[in-house]
UniProtKB/TrEMBL annotation:
InterPro entries: Tdp1. One of its GO terms (biological process) is DNA repair. The active site is at H175 (nucleophile), H401 (proton donor/acceptor). This is Tyrosyl-DNA phosphodiesterase 1-like. It is found in: Nucleus. The record marks S426 as: Interaction with DNA. GO terms for cellular component: nucleus. Belongs to the tyrosyl-DNA phosphodiesterase family. It comes from Tropilaelaps mercedesae. Substrate binds at K177, K403. Keywords: DNA damage, DNA repair, Exonuclease, Hydrolase, Nuclease, Nucleus. Residues 29-42 have a biased composition (Polar residues). The keyword Coiled coil does not apply. The lineage of its organism: Eukaryota, Metazoa, Ecdysozoa, Arthropoda, Chelicerata.
């Protein structure tokens, strides 16, 4: 097996190098740092914001002189999606993993640590430049028999990769998706909603956050943290694994300057801390977001749903909704359950038809593992559901795997905060406030502006306002049969493994 895998690996490296030159050129031209626009003679408030918002890709002198792009939030991107028009994959607001790893950052990569639920070791290493593919690499992975055995087999070929297994209780998962890149003189952090394997970076709707290059303190002294405590929260998360290697990693980060990370908070979930997950998010929102009227909605997308309780008050409204909406401590104490409802809690999840007509067809439903068995116990959830639609960014047919939460004004024109994370709509991901810690490992980045910002300036993976389900709409469940032909010409039968080809 090792010999056959090695041949595949060698062929893959050779094939991959064909487009590596073009990838490297594009990466050098479009690093995750702000787009280098032509200089202008007009500066400041006298230059109005570009009406195209975050999707603007124009760099001509005339355009830049008359349109400001300083409002762009740095670091947040949609992932590139196969088969879209060029304008929907513009480098100003999209990134591929290969593009990130090929960027010319004027430093030498030395090692990388990866966190994911699913891996393809060969695909992952091929995203790196050829010269880095044999560096020390670590994969933090749940000890699930099927995946772990596959990775052990792959490691016979990729001897530079070590595995760090994580044990979890039933219903818990190692769901975080993150890469920690150690360079000779700096550190870079990549957090994403996509697993580290090819299909998640191909035809799905995903997001990624890329940190600035965080310089190492040459004096071997403790370097500044960000004013949001990003390093402190990240290191607390790493230590929670109770693994010597990750604890050492956290200690080493004390020497890196995190002060370039602005307005971004690291939000992690871990089974080993009741103060993580929803408790951590609740704390940050309470301390950093001013009191807002209850009618200002929270809109969020996700790809999996847990068991939430026999009615909407059990967890969704009483616990989850209250934490997201009542950002002022006095409001938390005084807000009634009636103030949290399906008008200000707007959940986005695809219908059967939206999965069927997606680029992947019913196969996209493999990454949407909600079941009819669970849904029949909580049919009340349908009252909170809204359609998946992403026409503005060209991704309505790219099935959602993105977890994105945003609080806006009632008319959706202003944004008070937003968050990209691995955490789905479940108690396993978020915990139950101070009653029960999360069951899973999750991580994400929360952005809180100093003042409300124009929503059009935020990289958002779906359209606003979202459209509510009608009485006839049915959400996707993975364990039902679907006879209507999908975009790929298949039907769906979970008893036979999922997508079934239809003979024409």
């Amino acid at each position: 097996m090792a010999n056959s895998r090695k041949k595949v690996h060698e062929i893959s490296e050779s094939d991959d190098d064909v487009d590596e030159i073009s990838e490297s050129k594009r990466a050098r031209a479009s690093s995750s740092q702000p787009l280098q626009l032509p200089s202008t003679t007009r500066r400041g408030s006298d230059v109005p914001p570009c009406p195209q918002g975050f999707m603007c890709a124009r760099t001509s002198v005339d355009h830049v002189q008359t349109n400001s792009h300083e409002y762009r939030v740095r670091g947040f991107y949609l992932t590139k999606c196969d088969g879209l028009q060029t304008k929907f994959n513009a480098d100003t607001f999209t990134r591929s993993l290969k593009q990130i790893l090929h960027e010319d950052v004027d430093d030498q990569l030395e090692s990388a640590v990866h966190f994911s639920y699913v891996y393809d070791m060969e695909w992952l290493l091929n995203q790196y430049p050829q010269k880095y593919r044999h560096l020390p690499m670590m994969l933090v992975v749940q000890r699930r028999q099927d995946l772990f055995e596959l990775l052990i087999a792959q490691r016979q070929v990729y001897r530079n990769v070590c595995l760090l297994p994580v044990e979890l209780a039933r219903f818990g998962s190692h769901h975080s998706k993150m890469i920690l890149l150690k360079y000779k003189h700096s550190l870079r952090i990549v957090i994403t909603t996509a697993n580290l394997y090819g299909p998640d970076w191909g035809r799905k709707s995903q997001m990624v956050w890329v940190s600035p290059m965080l310089k190492k303190n040459s004096q071997h002294k403790v370097a500044p943290d960000s004013n949001t405590g990003f390093r402190s929260a990240l290191c607390t998360y790493l230590r929670s694994y109770q693994k010597k290697k990750l604890h050492g990693l956290a200690e080493s980060y004390m020497n890196y300057d995190f002060s370039l990370i602005e307005k971004c908070f690291f939000i992690g979930s871990t089974p080993n801390s009741i103060n993580s997950g929803l408790v951590a998010l609740d704390s940050v929102l309470t301390k950093n977001v001013p009191a807002l009227a209850n009618e200002n909605p929270v809109i969020f997308s996700f790809s999996s749903i847990g068991t939430l309780g026999q009615d909407d008050a059990a967890w969704l409204r009483q616990t989850f909704g209250r934490s997201l909406l009542a950002t002022d401590q006095s409001m938390k104490q005084n807000a009634g359950i009636e103030d949290i409802n399906n008008d200000n809690i707007q959940a986005i999840y695809p219908t059967i038809d939206e999965v069927r007509t997606s680029f992947e067809g019913y196969a996209a439903g493999r990454s949407l593992p909600y079941s009819e068995k669970v849904h029949k116990k909580q049919r009340w959830l349908s009252r909170f559901l809204h359609h998946w639609k992403a026409d503005r960014v060209g991704r309505s047919r790219a099935a959602p795997h993105v977890k994105f939460y945003i609080r806006t004004s009632l008319d959706y024109q202003q944004t008070f905060w937003f968050m990209m994370t691995s955490a789905n709509l479940s108690k396993a991901a978020w915990g139950n406030l101070r009653m029960k810690a999360p069951l899973s490992y999750e991580c994400g980045v929360l952005y809180v502006p100093d003042n409300p910002m124009v929503t059009d300036h935020v990289v958002i993976p779906f359209d606003l306002p979202p459209k509510k389900y009608s009485a006839s709409d049915r959400l996707w469940v993975q364990d039902s049969c679907y006879a209507e032909i999908d975009f790929q010409g298949n039907t769906w039968d979970p008893r036979k493994g999922g997508s079934i080809s239809v003979a024409w």
